[in-house]
Write a structure and sequence with these properties.
mainly beta, six-stranded antiparallel barrel, 15 strands, about 10% helix
């Protein structure tokens, strides 16, 4: 009898084909979930990844075998300086998706915002507010345009990042008035997030450059007698069809991908970053001077990468909602 062919599932996931570099270094969020808040509230925030540490906390998940006991919890530290609300943007729902109906910019935007784009000078603030108020019956979503303030972080850079943050809760009129009240003001992490809640994390992963098939796809090495090397694939495919299929692992760009990780729990939202900054600062980052966020587990991206947070789109059902009890934070 002939030798039976060995079969195994393919190596590497095809879920993210094609593997290409992200269009922007700022994480992308294209969906904001609907929430049942009684009052309008921001549905997201952002911070710079500073590093990781661990805390000792009381396990509060009722289904855990360690419920009520002290557990070791690895956490990621985000430096979260306040966001500046630069504009309010309204969208209407059309057969072709959401389309911008109008936007209201702050009269005197911060000087650093000119490093990102040309700020409109001849903008009639009051006229645009009245224009949108006359079309509120067509408004489907209200969002705010916020920019980071990296001067307040430990990065040492000046150019801010500009992105949208969704607003949920209340009626359309209440959300629009709420956004107008925030225009030209700073929003802190505690205004949008609370300890114990679950968020989705959007960031761009660490770039790794041009890599071979073993690191990029996880294929196995060939036997040592293989012709012209062992760190390659055995074949590019059959004669028919006479082309290389997209499912064949190939060498190429690895990393710097847009990724979203779901249901990351916020362990703590603090206001004094020095209480969690190690002596000499975080490696390759520095000292956290103001607000910070501790998130359970790891998140995408290297140190200094901007990480965007969003209220969980599909939160776990049997998850504790109260803030976890922290006994010790490793500094």
């Amino acid at each position: 009898m002939g030798r039976r062919k060995k079969r195994a599932p393919r190596r590497g996931s095809l879920a993210y084909i094609p593997k290409v570099r992200a269009r922007s270094i700022v994480g992308r969020i294209s969906f904001w979930p609907s929430v049942d808040y009684k009052e309008p509230k921001l549905l997201g925030f952002a911070g710079y990844k500073a590093g990781m540490t661990h805390v000792i906390a009381i396990e509060d998940h009722p289904r855990s075998p360690h419920y009520g006991k002290e557990v070791f919890v690895p956490v990621t530290v985000l430096d979260a300086p306040p966001l500046y609300v630069a504009a309010v943007r309204c969208y209407e729902d059309t057969p072709y998706g959401l389309k911008a109906l109008g936007e209201v910019w702050v009269e005197k935007p911060p000087k650093d915002l000119e490093r990102v784009f040309t700020v409109p000078e001849s903008f009639d603030h009051d006229k645009m507010v009245e224009k949108i108020k006359g079309r509120l019956d067509r408004v489907a979503e209200v969002r705010v345009l916020t920019c980071t303030q990296p001067r307040l972080s430990g990065l040492g850079k000046k150019t801010p990042e500009l992105f949208e943050v969704g607003v949920g809760g209340g009626s359309v009129e209440e959300r629009f008035e709420y956004c107008l009240s925030l225009l030209g003001k700073e929003v802190r992490a505690k205004d949008a997030l609370r300890e114990g809640m679950y968020v989705d994390v959007s960031a761009v992963t660490k770039g790794k450059g041009f890599q071979g098939v073993i690191k990029r796809w996880g294929v196995k090495r060939l036997p040592h007698k293989s012709r012209k090397g062992v760190r390659k694939i055995g074949t590019l495919g059959p004669w028919v069809p006479s082309r290389v299929l997209y499912t064949v692992p190939r060498a190429g760009q690895l990393g710097f991908f847009q990724r979203i990780e779901y249901n990351k729990r916020i362990i703590k939202v603090g206001e004094n970053g020095e209480e969690i900054t190690p002596k000499g600062g975080f490696v390759n980052y520095g000292v956290i001077r103001g607000d910070y966020i501790l998130i359970k587990g790891s998140i995408p991206g290297p140190v200094k990468r901007l990480v965007r947070l969003r209220v969980a789109a599909r939160p776990p059902r049997a998850a504790p909602e109260a803030a976890p009890q922290i006994l010790y934070v490793k500094v």
